[in-house]
Amino acid sequence: MKQKIGISQCLLGDAVRYDGALLASTAASRYAIHKLEQLFELVPVCPEVEAGLGTPRPPVRLTGSIENPRLTGRDDPTIDATKIMYDYCRHKPAELNTLAGFIFKSRSPSCGLNSTPVFIDGKCVTETSRGVFARSLCKTYPELTVIEDSALEHQELLDRFIRDILNKPCD
Questions:
Q1: pLDDT of residue 49
Q2: How many angstroms separate the CA atoms of 67 and 128, rounded?
Q3: Which of 33, 96, 109, 130 yields a CA-CA distance of 20 to 30 A from 86?
């Protein structure tokens, strides 16, 4: 039985991005995901779509606070997806209790692990914050092995991610 790892669904080539476009991935990240598919059962997760924000949808970004950000429209600041995303994050992590790891989409307001910009008063105050869903999942499961897609291109980081998961006991 293969161990399960969650993955931001857009990384699998599904058209779930805000603009409905397919994610352009590098050869290295395609290779890494193919390798991971051979070793693990991949569980696709798209917090924004699963929360009810359709595709296509207006793009959102993190605003107002680094610790407790809001998700507001990038182009139209009157759009506010904060409540729907935080409501989703209250129940979704419990459904993912069988995961041994998770691959997050970098820079995403929902899935960025350590690369998501936060804007306060229209200015970017950090580019190293965590997306709302990534924050929730990592808080719920602090021992979960996690990585961002951008790190998959570094062989040593990919190998460590794989090794850390394979060394975990299966449930």
A1: 97
A2: 12
A3: 33
Check if the beta carbon of residue 56 is closer than 8 Å to that of residue 16: no
Q: Contact at 8 Å (CB) between 118 and 66?
A: yes
53-90 residues labelled b (16+ CB within 10 A) or e (exposed): beeebeebbbbeeeeebbbbbeeeeeeebbeebbebbe
Task: Provide the token pair at 169.
Answer: 């006991």
Tokens for 111?
Answer: 């899935």
Q: What is the residue type of 34?
A: H
Which amino acid, 156?
E
Torsion over CA of 153, 154, 160 and 163, rounded to 10 degrees? Answer: 50
Terminal Cα distance for the chain, rounded = 10
Mean pLDDT within 35-55: 96
Distance CA 72, CA 1 (A): 41
- Residue 56 tokens read as 């296509």
Cβ neighbours of residue 32 under 8 Å, at least 6 residues apart? 152, 153, 158
Mean pLDDT of the chain: 95
Report long-range pairs for 19-24 (Cβ below 8 Å, ≥24 apart).
Answer: 19/56, 19/59, 20/55, 20/56, 23/105
Q: How confident is the model at residue 169 (pLDDT cuts 50, 70, 90)?
A: confident
